[in-house]
Amino acid sequence: MPGLLQKIARPIRILQFSFFMLFVFGSFFGWHIHTVYRQVVASSPIGEPLFDRALLEEYGEQIITHLADKEVKAAIVSRSGQKRSKLPDGVAFTHSAFWLFEPKEDGSPHYAVYNLYHGEENRLISSLVKDSPADFLRLTREHDAGIIIPTPAVQQQMIDYITSERYGEVHQINYSLISNPYDARFQNCNEFMLDSLAAMFWDTPNSAVIKEKFETVLAPTELKASIIRKKIGPVVDERLIMTDHEGPILTTTRQTLAKFIDSQGGLAEDYILELGR
User: Fold this and answer.
1) Taking a C-beta distance cutoff of 8 angstroms, is the pair 131, 225 a contact?
2) Sheet bearing 111-118, strands edge to edge
3) Which residues is 272 bridged to in the sheet?
4) For the chain, what is the HEC assignment?
5) What is the spatial distance between Cα 67 and Cα 61, in angstroms, rounded to a whole number?
6) 3-class DSSP state for residue 64?
7) pLDDT in tens, 137-156
8) Contact assessment for residue 116 and residue 246, using Cβ atoms and an 8 Å cutoff
């Protein structure tokens, strides 16, 4: 009988060990995809700021002064919510927003920031939020900002569109950190901006038409991840949805936005602005 019990116990121990190793490897992959990809395009004002409020206000004023001196009425500005060393190849910034020139009552220059943010209690639902440059920079982890300046004609188009009732017509409230720009089921901040620009350029609120046309004019950013990581990612972070990625993981980044505007003949400048005291 003892020999029989040993024979039964051995495969059970092997099975238990196998499950343990799968858990260890799964946890490792989950940790990796959580730490590396979670802030790729994280659209959130929630979290602990790295820099104090005075510095954020100063950085905001630097961007305001810079854009105002160039007489920019509408721009796209990006900030990095992760240290650049932790970001995947090809990704330098994690969150972008429309900046529209809206001077203060005393006439001093100021820009209103039009964001898409996911919720705090339900992180799978997003909303459109207007805030200030310092609030936009609240979670930045780097001392720079990405600047995309369209041509004057496109700047005026952006102002007319964003300040009209049409703004938000292509907003998909279902949020995903790395939503696929070819798929209409989910959106993050950058994809919302991409869809909005397309709706503006092509004069259509039809997301299906926009997504179909993207197939011929758009080159999204591809993120590298194994099949295992693609399966485990959503377990680690519910915002990391993979159902819209049947093949490569494709997402919208700041550079995707710049390239798209350029493809429509509307790009004037695209550069990184260093911020400092």
Assistant:
1) no
2) 126-131, 111-118, 95-101, 74-79, 144-150, 267-274
3) 146
4) CHHHHHHHHHHHHHHHHHHHHHHHHHHHHHHHHHHHHCCCCCCCCCCCCCCCHHHHHHHHHHHHHHHHHCCCCEEEEEECCCCHHHCCCCCCCCEEEEEEECCCCCCCCCEEEEEEEECCCCCCEEEEEEECHHHHCCCCCCCEEEEEEECHHHHHHHHHHHCCCCCCCCCCCEECCCCCCCCCCCECHHHHHHHHHHHHHHCCCCHHHHHHHHHHHCCCEEECCCHHHHHHHHHHCCCCCCCCCCCCEEECCHHHHHHHHHHCCCEEEEEEEECCC
5) 10
6) helix
7) 999 999 999 999 999 999 99
8) no
What's the CA gap between 248 and 31, in Å, rounded?
Answer: 20
Query: Nearest-CA neighbor of 68 among 12, 122, 124, 149?
Result: 149
Contact criterion met (CB below 8 Å) for 90 and 205: no
Do you know the residue count of the chain?
Answer: 277
Using one digit for the tens of pLDDT, what is the confidence trace for 188-200?
999 999 999 999 9
* pTM across the whole model: 0.81
